[in-house]
Amino acid sequence: MKSIDRALEPILFEVLRRNAGEPEFHQAVKEVFESLHRVIERHPRYADGGLIERICEPERQIIFRVPWIDDQGKVRVNRGFRVQFNSALGPYKGGLRFHPSVNVGIIKFLGFEQTFKNALTGLPIGGGKGGSDFDPRERSDGEIMRFCQSFMTELYRHLGEYTDVPAGDIGVGGREIGYMFGQYKRLTNRYESGVLTGKGLALGGARARKEATGYGAVYFVERMLATKGTDLEGKRVVVSGSGNVSIYTMEKVLSLGGTVVACSDSGGYVVDEAGIDLDLVKELKEVQRKRISEYAVRKGNGARFFTEGSVWNVPCDIAMPSATQNELMEEDARSLAKNGVIAVAEGANMPCTPGAIDVFRKAGVLYAPGKAANAGGVATSALEMQQNAARESWTFEQTEKRLAGIMRDIHDTCAETAKEYGAPGDYMLGANIAGFVRVAEAVRELGVT
Q: Which structural domain range is residue 119 located in?
């Protein structure tokens, strides 16, 4: 473990003890604690009064049964989660993830990260996260609808536009949000459009929301590169994943002159030296819901699909891990650094392991943590809440302009905070400190709650 301020050691020990068997949550907490010694030296009051303990303890954890009936008439049972982590800055805000890997520890790590990410946006939103171990892959629309309705039948009682506002995440897109919103509306007899974000336009959704996380990550990279006097023009980019975040990361990279040479899914990765054909990826993933292996079959012309090795072995200037947590390991980071990568930005939540991050920082690679680089999605969700509250509908251009400004401000906040605390260029330290201070000040002013 890296240096932890001595005043924080007993606090960290107790957090880890109380949350045994939750390695992802431990990892997220340790990462923040490793940045706080500079803050405690300057502001020792943050180590007193149980403030950090309160920030590390979720305000509420909800676990519930989700029974549903499949197309064969068989009753299935999944487990649902919602962790309402911190509401010091506003109502809980954070996505719902439907994936077999989901458990309470993963939801807690995501909620903890979300609290600081949301703080960095400067918008009045707290942190939360939720989901289920339900796997939507290979399920029919009818099965997904019935699952979403059952899920919302329990969760609805904990939600509200001034209480908790979920959105989508892995496995949860506009279709799933629509089904859940329909059930919420049916149960409450209210058209409370601000209770869920990521909705379709017909239900009051925001234009540019589905693009926002990917676009925002690229705007952050653009700003990082500018500090080194360069830009995306002519750069080789590798993006992991091929879901929503990855697709719109690739779209914005292409619009700014970069070339995406590889992307992936859970079955392997595809390399296309001529540049990934984004229209084909969209057709395969957003319309046909097929595997990325089909890309090489359909494209031909030198496109290759691999099941062995790692997408991070593909030489590139910029790496954007956008799939899931801990997907980029220390050996992957060494491969990227050896091949000359100049910038890494996390489109997913905590996709780089601590060992990988150490490699990037020691090699002088620009590294942007997810709580900063992928905050564009939740920022645009907050803009959707704003539009719903005002009964307005902004244009795509209006929303994207606000998104670009928010991402610029997040970058500059991280950079300025890192410089203020004696670590210029360290975006991880800057993001952790800036997010922590904003949350800590709000918690402190609210009293012991």
A: 58-191
- Is 145 within the bounds of a domain? yes
Asked if residue 345 and residue 220 are part of one domain, the reply reads yes
Give the integer Cα–Cα distance in Å for 244 and 95. 14
Q: CB of 237 within 8 A of CB of 321?
A: no
CATH of the domain at 244: 3.40.50.720
Place of tokens 């690739």: 250
The answer to the question of residue 369 being in a domain is no
**When comparing pLDDT for 382 and 302, which is higher?**
382
Separation between Cα atoms, residue 92 and residue 111, nearest integer Å: 9
- 371 noted as active-site residue: no
Q: Are residues 214 and 360 in the same domain?
A: yes
Specify the residue for token string 């905590």: 350
Evaluate if pTM is beyond 0.90: yes
Which residue type does 225 have? L
Enter the tokens of residue 333.
């980071």
Average pLDDT over residues 4-14: 90
| Distance between start and end Cα atoms, the chain | 31
Structure tokens at 143: 């099965």
Which uninterrupted H or E stretch holds 331?
A: helix 330-338
Q: Structurally, how many domains does the chain consist of?
A: 2
Q: What is the pLDDT of residues 33-74, one digit of tens each?
A: 999 999 999 999 999 889 999 999 999 999 999 999 999 999
369 residue type, one letter:
P
- Catalytic residue chosen out of the listed positions 93, 108, 117, 129: 129
Angle at alpha carbon of residue 412, lines to 411 and 418, rounded to 5°: 95
> Which residue type, as a one-letter code, is found at position 123?
L
Predicted pLDDT at 5? 77
Pairing of strands 259-265, 92-98: unpaired
Q: How many CB atoms lie within 10 A of CB 326?
A: 16
Tell me the pLDDT tens digit for each residue of 209-262.
999 999 999 999 999 999 999 999 999 999 999 999 999 999 999 999 999 999
Tell me how many degrees the CA angle 144-135-70 measures, rounded to the nearest 5.
45
